[in-house]
Design brief:
It is built from 17 helices and 13 strands. With 557 residues, it is of the alpha+beta class. The strands form three sheets. Strands 1, 2, 3, 4, 5, 6 and 7 form a seven-stranded mixed beta sheet that branches. Strands 11-12-8-13 form a four-stranded antiparallel beta sheet. Strands 9-10 form a two-stranded antiparallel sheet. It is globular and about 80 Å long. The chain starts with a strand and ends with a helix.
Length: 557
């Protein structure tokens, strides 16, 4: 499946009826999911996020831009945020199964349609820009709505699509970018100037360089010389929120992997402290990728000398509390984290233990041995993480803390990998059954059906193979955590090892039975067979070693 995200910013944040009318256009398109609507009263701007199949997203974006042009009059618009159009900016972000180049093609398709049918001039920006000067949205937006008519008459600033300034709707920027985190940090002041001063020091573009007399320094071409800010890939301004009577440093993290949300928070906190202020919290405008919050959680746990080998929920909780993301509004992870919003399908792993076991016990072949093996393996990894975390804070193991934390981290990742395989195993089997149900009346249908059956048979073989391969890593982790020497947890390590061993044989049996249907694929079948025999032989040796160690430890008690 191809998925792209669209995050249009509309210049209306106060009139709920107008906002609802715009978002209703988006919701009316099939294969599109509206993820988030984030209006701002003071900015008079609403950030909307939706995701879907590319063609459907382009259609939904066009309808929303059209409705915004109908309902928003820029000639009377006022707001704290820089803006130049009723739909100020409309970025496309590749999410799944689609390349940046493909997204760029879609962005031009949307831009051309908007310009031709709605008479709105379009500037292409970021990865869709025709020149380096137009990559940065701030360059395009400079002068804002009020100065755009004059700006467009300049040869260097003719729009990419359309030519005549639209007095009512202004202009719009459309382009492809990476995932952007819109992030605001709250200060214990209502002084906008102080927030702006921090923004100038931290944003990548920096501030104007001044001489000893305070005069702006210019180069030989009379171009202003700037002192770069402290944070790469960060854009920022300061503003005042009347609704909350606070000043904020408002930022766009255009590459959160270069400059993380927690690094940004810490830098603003230090800058505020220098000026006699403090940070009271922060807020997300729109959505955030899961890994950005998980990394923040690990960062703050490290600062507290705590183990980072904990669940995703715990990492998210510590990130939210440390960043103060719930200061102004409750933070709902299912509404703010993009992966949780997109992935709403019912899962086996979300069932209670009773419901899962009941599902296994029914008269249907899936979920079956493959999913059960993955569950057993996840329990093994979970126990390893538990033992590592129980050992982390014990004084006698302080010298081994780095290693223990690494074991806990890896065990948590393995646990998540195994849990994903629980559902993948069942989904693959169901896809195989669907392949068998394909029509076979014509030669073309028969050929297609046979191809699908072969593809799906390989898939139902390879998924338990992935489980089997990972069980060897799970039992290796159990052996490593056993070496820590926490005598109170010997039995737990023993159970973790046995669960990994049991899961390995369960996965092994599933691979073997599926290979029976791949006899004609000799090279493929032989390769897989050689691999699983090697892994299972290794598992036999490792469980024997661990059993001896566990028995020895238990006998010495």
């Amino acid at each position: 499946m191809k998925l792209i995200e669209c995050v249009p910013n509309f210049s209306e944040g106060r009139n709920k009826d107008i906002i609802d009318s715009i978002t209703s256009e988006i919701s009316s398109v099939s294969d599109v999911k509206l993820l988030d609507v984030d209006p701002g009263k003071d900015t008079n701007r609403t950030v909307v996020t939706f995701v879907g199949e590319p063609e459907s997203v382009i259609e939904a974006a066009f309808l929303a831009i059209s409705k915004a042009s109908e309902l928003i009059d820029m000639s009377s618009h006022k707001g704290a945020h820089p803006r130049m159009g009723a739909t100020d900016v409309c970025p496309l972000i590749p999410i799944k199964g689609v390349t940046v180049d493909e997204c760029i093609e879609y962005s031009h398709k949307l831009a051309q349609k908007v310009a031709q049918k709605l008479n709105i001039p379009i500037f292409m920006y970021e990865k869709s820009a025709a020149s380096k000067e137009r990559q940065n949205l701030a360059n395009i937006r400079k002068g804002e709505y009020e100065g755009m008519s004059k700006k467009m008459k300049s040869k260097n600033w003719a729009p990419d699509y359309g030519s005549k300034f639209n007095v009512k709707s202004g202009v719009t920027a459309i382009g492809v970018r990476e995932f952007l985190i819109a992030y605001n940090i709250n200060l214990n002041t209502s002084d906008k100037k102080l927030a702006s001063d921090i923004a100038l020091d931290i944003r990548e573009a920096g501030r104007a360089k001044r001489d000893k007399k305070g005069k702006i320094v210019r180069d030989k071409n009379n171009v202003m010389v700037k002192v770069p800010g402290s944070l790469k890939s960060v854009k920022g301004v300061g503003w005042y929120l009347e609704e909350h009577n606070i000043a904020q440093v408002s930022m766009n993290l255009v590459d959160y992997k270069t400059t993380s949300i927690h690094k940004t928070f810490e830098e603003v906190r230090e800058q505020a402290q220098k000026r006699g202020m403090r940070v009271t919290g922060s807020e997300l405008v729109g959505l955030i990728p899961l890994d950005a919050l998980l990394d923040a959680g690990r960062y703050f746990l490290n600062k507290q000398n705590k183990s980072t080998g904990v669940t995703d929920s715990q990492l998210i909780h510590i990130a939210v509390k440390s960043l103060g993301l719930d200061e102004m509004y409750p933070f709902n992870k299912n509404e703010k984290i993009i992966e949780y919003l997109i992935d709403t399908d019912s899962k086996l792993v979300d069932k209670t233990i009773v419901d899962f076991v009941d599902e296994v016990s029914m008269d249907s072949p899936a979920p079956g041995g493959g999913s059960v093996s993955a569950v057993a393996a996840s329990m093994s990894a979970g126990l390893v993480s538990m033992v590592a975390n129980l050992s982390f804070n014990k004084k006698e193991f302080y010298s081994k803390r780095k290693k223990i934390n690494g074991l806990a981290d890896r065990a948590q990742q393995l646990k998540n990998d195994f849990l994903s395989l629980v559902d993948l195993d069942t989904l693959a089997f169901n896809d195989l059954m669907n392949a068998f149900r394909l029509p076979k009346k014509t030669d073309k249908e028969i050929k297609f059906r046979d191809t699908q059956i072969l593809t799906m048979t390989k898939l139902v073989t390879e998924i338990p193979l992935r489980t089997l391969e990972k069980t060897e890593e799970a039992i290796d982790l159990a052996l490593e955590v056993l070496k820590i020497g926490n005598v109170n947890c010997v039995s737990d390590v023993g159970v973790a090892s046995e669960m990994a061993y049991s899961a390995a044989y369960g996965a092994y049996y599933n691979v073997r039975i599926n290979l029976l249907d791949l006899k004609k694929e000799k090279a493929y079948s032989n390769q897989i067979d050689h691999k699983i025999i090697s892994i299972i032989s290794s598992m036999d040796n490792k469980i024997s070693k661990i059993r001896n160690l566990v028995e020895k430890d238990l006998s010495s008690e």
